[in-house]
Amino acid sequence: MKINNIKYLLIAAFVLVFSACDPIVDEQHLKNSTDVAGVELVAKQSPAGGNKITLSMNTPGVTGYWDYNLGKALTNEVTIVYPIPGKSTFTFVGTLGAEFFTKKIDVQVDRLDTPLEQDWYDLVSTNTSAGKTWVFDGVAGTGDMYWFMSPPDNPDSAMSAWWNAGDCCPPLDVNGRMHFDLNGAANYNHYQTASATAEKGSFVLDIANKKLFIKDSKILGYEAGNAANEYTIITLTEDKLVLYVPRSLKDAGTGWTFVYRPE
Q1: Percent of the chain at pLDDT exceeding 90
Q2: How many CA atoms lie within 13 A of 145 on its CB side?
Q3: Which of 50, 72, 144, 179 lies 20 to 30 Å from 105 when distance is taken between CA atoms?
Q4: Beta strands of the chain (E only): which ranges?
Q5: Where does the UniProt annotation place the signal sequence (predicted)?
């Protein structure tokens, strides 16, 4: 009898041990908290028609970020001083819970009544619609430092030339120019020569991170640029622009520095 009791106790113990090893599955399925039509986007201008804009996504349970064309804000609400007059479209990218979505809102800017950060005026001039043209700040064969190899991965060393390529071996567009303006959009044009037809694109000026991005076109001196068309701003004043790439297309083991002046 005692032996049988011991058997039953052992069997019960084994059952408990193996049952404890079975995974507990808590199946939870993501659900949408609303639909795209139910996502409320609001744009407030201060004052009305001005270029100081607060973009808000006001629907509870929805999260995401704002793409305001010249940058992104990883939040449901952001206030920006927008540099471009006219009608602009801003996009909220988010999740409803079970699926991602995008939704847009149009804003009409009638006037630039809130001053921009100085970098905008330095790059495109105070006449933002007319814009500004930049050319290389130097002439080949004179020793001028306007397009040269520099140390890689170190913006602090951008002005330390390893090889003054522009003196002996100038870029293909050495006599070209590039133009920035904010006439309805962030417009950018590259000209291979002074009289060439423009290769039209756009640009993003990221002041906070000291970056300039060229889209759908190329930088002046593009042979030494980079595939992402992303440039670190070393200097940006009314009369000088210096850009740097940490790894150049011309030589992947080096950086490259570009020096420009207004035309």
Answers
A1: 84
A2: 13
A3: 179
A4: 41-45, 52-57, 63-67, 72-73, 77-81, 86-95, 100-109, 132-136, 147-150, 177-181, 187-191, 199-206, 211-215, 230-237, 240-245, 255-262
A5: 1-20
* Mean pLDDT across 86-101: 95
Does the pLDDT at position 201 exceed 90?
yes
Spatial distance between the Cα atoms of 11 and 29, rounded to a whole number of angstroms: 38
CB-based burial label for 6 (10 Å; 0-12, 13-18, 19+): exposed
User: Sheet harboring 52-57: ordered strands across?
Assistant: 41-45, 52-57, 77-81
* Contact present, 199 and 215 (Cβ < 8 Å): no
CA distances from 237 to 124, 146, 225, 234, 242 (A): 11, 16, 21, 10, 9
DSSP state letter for 233: E
The Cα–Cα gap between 19 and 22 comes to 5
φ, ψ (nearest 5 deg) of residue 27: -80, 115
pLDDT at 98: 86
Q: Is the pLDDT of residue 22 over 90?
A: no
Distance CA 256, CA 117 (A): 27
d(CA 63, CA 195): 49
